[in-house]
Amino acid sequence: MESALDRLLEERRRWREIRRRRLTKVNERCALGWKNFCIALHHEVVRHNTLGRRPILGLRRNANVLEIHRAGHLAPLLTFSLNEDHVQIAYSSPLHQDSVLVDRDGSIIAAFLGSLLLMAPDGRMMRFGYSEAAQYLLAPVLPS
Q: What is the pLDDT of residue 43?
């Protein structure tokens, strides 16, 4: 016969296992979203550089950071990083030539089903595909 304590311990063990599986799934999907978003950013930079203009943007990437910079300059215009602790992609626009190119730093939630959620300056959530998110975030640094 199973005691109340044994049932409680078993229930807690099951809930911990369910929570662990959910967190693993969310982390895997965020990592996949990061990978796909980096590919979309790379594609947009290459597309921009091949529009008949001389290449003016470059990318630097290491494990969890991607920087967009002007060709020949070290200072990044935009920096994207994977924040695994909060399961999101953080972005920032460091000061470049005394002007901030993106209104504020922010974060992107790597949503499921191949899309990203981005918080607009007015507080509403915007849903983008990877390519659309890359275009939206690169727009302030691309010359018109």
A: 94
